[in-house]
Amino acid sequence: MSQQAIKNLDNPEKIKEFNETINDIVVSDSVGEAKELLEVLSQVFSYNKEFKKANPFLFDVYYNYLVAMKYVVLYELEEKEIIKLMRENFNFILNHPGYDLERKIKYKITIISDLDKRDNFKKELRQILLECNARLGRDKLLINGQPHEATVANWLKNYYVEVGMGKVDSVKLSEHLGNNKNIRLLSSEEQIVLKNLLKFFENLKVLSTEFPLFEERFVAVLPDGEINIISGGKAEKIPPQTLKIHKEVESLVNRTTERKLASLVKSETENGLAELKQLAAKYSPGSLERKAIEEEIKKMNRE
Questions:
Q1: CA 25 to CA 227: how far, in whole Å?
Q2: What is the rounded distance in angstroms from the CA atom of residue 231 to the CA atom of residue 262?
Q3: Please, are residues 262 and 246 in contact by the beta-carbon 8 Å criterion?
Q4: What is the greatest pairwise CA distance in the chain?
Q5: Which of 162, 157, 136 is nearest to 201 (CA)?
Q6: I need a surface site. Which of 72, 203, 209, 229 has the fewest CB within 10 A?
Q7: Which residues have C-beta within 8 Å of that of residue 79, sequence separation ≥ 6?
Q8: Helices 56-72 and 12-28, packing angle to 10 deg
Q9: Residue 111 to residue 142: CA distance in whole angstroms
Q10: pLDDT tens-digit readout, 260-293
Q11: pTM of structure
């Protein structure tokens, strides 16, 4: 990599601007902008094979930008790339509490049509978490009286030592989060991150081959007319006020569409009449051609 290329990238103003842009894209979850920037960053690395050797610190700065953009467009990546990204860069998840990993992965899973492949993908994701050495919190964990580093892997060990490795319901999960002594040492923000990780881990246990609609989200109308949203295998009743607003909006849209169609039809009719009148004027009064055209004009006026 040339010294000039490094100098162009090692610009405090440019890095500051990049930091702000990257943060805005992550917070707003702007997939379109992330795809564009990801392409630019990918070119930076592909064109400069000696980047890391030439300037390790600067390499890490731009590599983290690349990682952030990949996480924003996560569901568009191939499964193998997602696995590699999460295995090598899980700190991104821990450093961005607002990032909704479960939503991104759930959407990715729905794109995979083969149910066995879905389950294999989930298995690999669970394994990443069980082996993850990224740290969450400063204090060591006491598990069975023994101190452990506060890694994601050990937080999961702390979890399943208490609740078991089988599927855990939401009540048992809440009890663990509220009563575990290790969790109390985390900050409120870190507790939210851990809660989301444990929920994510639990949902990865659900086999798509047994529950193929678990990741799907759809609306169901019950026999009594009640409307529910089905998500994550659970039914959530739509509040009456929400339905009322939806129907009002739908009615407004329909009325607007009808007015636009009526206006369009009227406009096309008027244009057609004008063209026929121009055509009729080309023939002499009383001619068969003119009479035929005038008859067509009368029909259009009646309609």
A1: 35
A2: 40
A3: no
A4: 110
A5: 157
A6: 209
A7: 108, 112, 117, 121, 124
A8: 20
A9: 40
A10: 666 665 666 667 777 777 777 777 777 766 666 7
A11: 0.70
